[in-house]
Design goal:
This protein is α/β, with parallel strands linked by helices. It is built from 26 helices and 21 strands. The longest helix is centred in the N-terminal third of the chain and has 26 residues. The mean pLDDT is 95.
């Protein structure tokens, strides 16, 4: 007999014979009706776990990581309000069921069975994954990436206080709500969890409101690796700024009392707390996991003897709320109802085509109030001494600063955040004076942790803000790439477009910084971004385009709920000249308000038909230099600026190069994994001949005089162009 059957038979036998485990008597934190309701939620959660195993065995189900042993989370849900947004551990079915009870949602069993079956009618993911989540229950869907939801839960909690000062148009969380976030004891050890907990304490230390309730469900093991006894309490009890609460998660009365005290503390004081619940894990990690292959049988059996349902039967019996016979009848009736429901749902359709699966990669557009551009008198006052500069040619860094000023003034839901963006004004001065103009709640100096920066942005976007986080250097993104790949970009996909976290992530990157920083501050690889479905990547090459594209990026985030990476070439920030010192041909006058560059619109310089140079960023600057020399030699050349790297502007690019005999792709990123691979493939697939590419070497970038030797240069662009023209 497998462990699932053993636990089932043990429960029926011990409940029927009133052979119940010992423990403290129930306290008075729950009425009899409330306690019975929680027991019913626990039972439904347990029976869903059992039926998921049978569905998988019959080829009808596709997920068996269950909640058995963690059913005490039903009491946590009951201690919270249903409008407290909750980011849940994947073992928290009982929480979702209990919350559904709170709001009278009668079809929760049906919803969850559809999710187990990956049916297209699944109301949360549309058949893409088995996830806990519900728009009606304020539970965004969460997949099983370890601890990756803690940073965004913190960001959402922060946003509640920020929304009290300036409530966004699309705000979701009530002003007096809190945010709940649950995770396992093994996840506690992940750097993402530790970073989020540290950030919570760091935030509170500065007297900033943060209504966040962290819930650690401690079953003592992560798949097969045990958590040292006492470690969770030792790790959490003395954390600065974090109030510690604990309870035995097998006792719904004690759990509810502790959860209510923790939630009341967070709601009243607007400070974070952690609720440490001691639980057990039943059935192993998942369907394919056999716990007795790595744990002594007596330990497995000891946990099974501590079945939380048996404890609930004991407590209800002692409280006079339900007899053991009634509890057993409830258990059996739940099984019969689920079996009948399973039969009813067997004919449900599944996603069949790639188009159906991908339909929710891009969220739907949302209606937004029209916002008029700032009047000239208000802008004159806002820009103060910089106002005259709006009518003078400026380098890219200054023009981006002007654009951010206008955007912050026009849209009160925009918030900037990042290390050094406030008082210092950024490493390269791009955000200078913005904090002075708009205040520290709109331009937020964060701690040094990229995961927390992006988590803050994702969480604020959950509550209607349009965040513009800054990652100082492209190489630093690797510290936090899962916040984009595993969280921000997947949210519409796994919620069938019901949830989104739109934002514009500004990243200073690429190469060509003379003698500075080596590969930490010169990173010429976009591979980490290029393959994230649904992500938009923008890369301006000069200042006027940067302004117009940044405005479009904000529009895409605000109105179309997109996640946009705005990659700013560091070496072009101060660039003034194109051909010779002092020619000032790479500076621009600030574009008038309302001028945007639409997504997918490429730039074309010249109308030559012999050769098209296709590039972006620093490469576009090099190509423009090469164009002048090639034209002096009698060649007809045009230069095409991609501007938008993802999605690749295929139609515009093919149309722009169609008149040309030859095409040279100049890519400042590495040969392997670079944009050039996609571009060459595009041209080949459309039958283009006379196509070649010039890329950087597959190398990191050196510091000092050798900073540029692995990168394309004006000379190598000319050499490659001449060689292609002579073929």
């Amino acid at each position: 007999m497998d462990r699932v059957a053993i636990v089932h038979e043990n429960f029926r036998r011990r409940t029927g014979s009133v052979d119940l485990p010992s423990g403290p008597a129930p306290n008075n934190s729950l009425t009899g009706e409330e306690a019975v309701g929680l027991y019913q939620a626990q039972v439904l959660s347990r029976q869903l776990d059992r039926i998921s195993r049978r569905m998988q065995a019959d080829g009808e189900g596709f997920y068996t990581i269950g909640s058995s042993g963690h059913e005490g989370m039903a009491a946590v849900a009951h201690a919270l309000r249903p409008d407290d947004m909750a980011f849940l551990h994947y073992r928290d079915a009982a929480f979702q069921i209990a919350r559904a009870q709170q709001v009278g949602h009668l079809h929760i069993a049906r919803d969850m069975l559809l999710s187990y079956a990956c049916a297209a009618a699944d109301p949360i993911s549309g058949g893409r994954h088995k996830v806990l989540g519900s728009r009606a229950l304020m539970i965004p869907p969460q997949t099983s990436t370890i601890a990756s939801h803690l940073p965004k839960a913190l960001g959402t909690a922060f946003s509640i206080g920020a929304a009290r000062r300036k409530r966004p148009e699309h705000s979701q969380c009530p002003p007096d709500s809190i945010v709940a976030c649950s995770f396992g004891d093994a996840s506690l050890n992940h750097s993402t969890a530790q970073g989020a907990i540290n950030t919570a304490g760091w935030t509170v230390f500065q007297v900033t409101p943060l209504p966040l309730l962290l819930i650690c469900e401690d079953n003592g093991i992560g798949i097969s690796v045990k958590t040292p006894r006492g470690w969770v309490e030792a790790s959490l009890r003395q954390r600065p700024g974090l109030r510690y609460f604990s309870a035995n998660g097998l006792d719904i009365y004690a759990t509810h009392e502790a959860a209510r005290a923790a939630a009341d503390f967070v709601r009243t004081h607007r400070k974070p707390a952690v609720l440490h619940l001691r639980t057990v894990r039943l059935y192993g990690h998942a369907g394919a996991d056999v716990a007795t292959s790595y744990l002594p049988r007596q330990e497995v059996e000891a946990d099974e003897a501590n079945d939380p349902l048996l404890h609930s039967v004991r407590l209800l019996h002692q409280a006079g709320a339900m007899t053991p016979d009634e509890a057993l009848a409830c258990y059996d009736e739940s099984e019969r109802e689920l079996d009948a429901l399973r039969q009813e749902l067997r004919s449900q359709a599944h996603l069949q085509t790639a188009q159906e699966v991908m339909q929710s990669l891009i969220p739907p557009a949302r209606p937004c109030a029209d916002v008029a551009p700032l009047e000239d008198a208000a802008r004159r006052q806002l820009f103060a001494g910089d106002y005259a500069g709006l009518r003078q040619a400026q380098p890219m860094s200054r023009l981006i600063n002007y654009a951010l000023t206008d955007l912050l003034a026009q849209y009160p839901e925009i918030t900037l955040m990042g290390e050094d963006v406030g008082r210092k004004g950024g490493v390269y001065g791009v955000t200078q004076k913005l904090q002075r103009r708009f205040g520290p709640d709109r331009v937020i100096d964060t701690l040094l942790d990229e995961q927390s920066i992006l988590g803050l942005a994702i969480g604020m976007a959950h509550n209607g803000f349009v965040p513009i986080p800054e990652i100082q250097f492209l190489a630093y993104l690797h510290n936090a790439e899962d916040q984009l790949r595993g969280e921000a970009a997947t949210l519409p996909f796994f919620s069938n477009g019901q949830y989104s976290n739109p934002m514009v992530i500004r990243i200073a990157g690429l190469g060509y910084q003379k003698g500075f920083g080596g590969h930490f501050h010169n990173d010429n690889s976009l591979a980490v971004l290029r393959d994230i479905p649904g992500l938009i990547i923008a890369c301006p090459s000069h200042g006027a385009d940067a302004v117009r594209m940044l405005r479009e990026a904000v529009r895409l985030a605000r109105e179309e709920q997109r996640v946009v990476v705005f990659l700013e070439p560091i070496a072009l920030y101060p660039m003034r000249d194109l051909h010779r010192d002092g020619d000032n041909e790479w500076m621009d006058v600030y574009p008038a308000q309302g001028e945007n560059l639409a997504l997918g619109e490429v730039g074309i310089r010249g109308d030559g038909k012999q050769l098209a140079l296709v590039s972006y960023g620093n490469g576009y600057h090099l190509c423009c230099q090469a164009q002048a020399e090639l034209e002096q030699q009698g060649y007809e050349v045009r230069v095409i600026d991609l501007r938008w790297l993802a999605p690749l502007p295929e139609s515009a690019l093919l149309a722009a190069t169609e008149p040309c005999e030859r095409v040279l792709v100049v890519d400042e990123c590495r040969k392997t994994g670079s944009q050039s691979e996609a571009l060459i493939t595009l041209f080949q697939e459309h039958g283009r001949r006379g196509v070649a590419r010039l890329t950087a070497e597959d190398s990191f970038i050196a510091t000092g005089p050798a900073y540029g030797v692995t990168l394309p240069s004006r000379t190598t662009v000319l050499e490659a162009a001449r060689a292609l023209l002579k073929r």
